[in-house]
Amino acid sequence: MSQNTTRPNSEIIKRGQVWKVVWVSGSKGYKLYPACATNMLLDVKTASNASSQIDIWTEPTTASSDRLWDIQYNSSSNNYKIVSKLNSSRAVTVSGNSTSAGASVVLGDKNASSANWVFYKVNPIPAVSGITSGQIYYLRNASSGKYMDVKGGGSSDNGTDLVQYRFNGNSNQKFKLERDELGYYSLIPQNATKKAVEITNTSKNNDAQVQIWDTQSYGYMSSQKFKIVKNTSGTWSGTYRLLSYCSDLNKAAVVQGGSGSDNANVIQWNNNGSHNGFWYFEKATISLVGMDDGNFNRRFWELSPGSNMVNRFNARGQMYSTKVVENCSKSEMLATIRDSYFLAIHTHGSNDNIEIYPTKNRSSRINITRGDIQQLNLEKVRCVVLGVCETGKNGTNSILNDFYESGARYVIGWKEQTNPDAQNVWLNVFIDVSVKCDVTS
């Protein structure tokens, strides 16, 4: 089926004006699915009425003629007729051949002037770099440094407001991204996975509250759709704006008044470039750092390729992004430590330092000192496991304690020297239990 290759110039793709056309070979007809309700079809409202209203209706389990169409192309005029499979002389027309906005679409004479339709191919909004559909993120506000949060400790009730709050890493601060066929995104709070972030009452107005609400059987409502725009230059490069579909992309999700306070509301406001409407998307990352020193394999997560630790973490349904860290510089290693949600390090070291060999052949060494850890902000790190001898030897005067004082919630290590094989067993059990019980929450 041919189509015009361009469409009327408009930044916003209207979901209610986009249709997916599918050929049904056994029935020798086309189905037309509206992008705003993908479980429904273009339908003749009253099959026995030759001038029936055209509507959309739930897709039946078997093909039904009132929801099947013959699409006939006229090459001389480069347009189409959408002819009913119920009656080959009737087609989709505009009532009274009206040119007014809001005029009804009905089943009418296929030779009427309003029975001619132009099909434009709709190219979706390109995927946004740096974020991935299906991945779970924390959203940190660029102005306040605080995180998007479902209020009230994670209420799952319809109408629960979104606010900003200091980082706690709980499920009400985690949001899963879902991208649709047109390129719009929806955000699913992980404390209420049957709901999505939305603009209250599908409002186009400033100050409309951002909240959570049930998704529908046909998918996400217009109030639950956002165009995500990445800022690629200047001070705020790497941040993103959430432009609401229901405001025709004119407004963004922002922290009200640029507040820095906990529980400040997230609202809809003009997309005016203020950085209280800029957000960092941060993965919940698990980092595994280890080495093979020739005597002991400290990369214990690589011992069983079929059931290794990386696979066990990833089995949590993309709740985390798991990586084995190697071939990196010292600055990259420090950034990994700072940005991890769960961190396991298994290598040589002492009470005062950690010696990381970033390659398997030990061709180089990274020395992480107590001073390095003391300079980091580790508030996002939930748990650190140090499979390193003597990291806690002197109690509060140790690199283990430095991890804790720099913000990591839980830090576990050894006071004395120990055999790496024993560390492997202990670390393996501890991390496996943490995966199953989610102690990092």
Mean residue pLDDT: 84
Radius of gyration equals 28 Å
Q: Tally of extended strands?
A: 28
Q: Any guess at the CATH architecture of the largest domain?
A: 3-Layer(aba) Sandwich
The CATH topology of the largest domain corresponds to Rossmann fold
Question: How would the global form be characterised?
Answer: elongated
Helix content bin: 10-25%
Strand order of the largest sheet: 22-21-23-27-28
Sheet bearing the most strands, described?
5 strands, parallel
Low-confidence stretches: 303-307, 315-319
Q: How many helices does DSSP assign?
A: 6
Q: Strand portion, in percent?
A: 25-35%
Structural class: mainly beta
State the domain count. 3
Q: Whole-Å distance between the termini?
A: 52 Å
List keywords for this structure.
6 helices; Rossmann fold; mainly beta; four-stranded antiparallel sheet; 441 residues; Trefoil (Acidic Fibroblast Growth Factor, subunit A); 3 domains; elongated
Overview of the molecule:
The chain has helices spanning 151-154, 309-314, 330-339, 370-374, 399-405, 420-437; strands at residues 19-24, 29-34, 40-44, 54-58, 69-74, 79-84, 90-94, 105-109, 136-141, 147-150, 162-165, 175-179, 185-189, 195-199, 210-214, 226-230, 240-244, 251-255, 266-270, 279-283, 285-290, 321-325, 342-346, 348-349, 353-356, 366-369, 383-387, 410-412. With 441 residues, it is mostly beta strands. The chain folds into three domains: 15-115, Trefoil (Trefoil (Acidic Fibroblast Growth Factor, subunit A)); 136-282, Trefoil (Acidic Fibroblast Growth Factor, subunit A), CATH 2.80.10.50; 284-437, Rossmann fold (3-Layer(aba) Sandwich). The chain has a five-stranded parallel β-sheet, sandwiched between helices. A hairpin with a 4-residue loop joins strand 1 (19-24) and strand 2 (29-34). The two termini are 52 Å apart. The model is unreliable at 303-307 and 315-319 (pLDDT under 50).
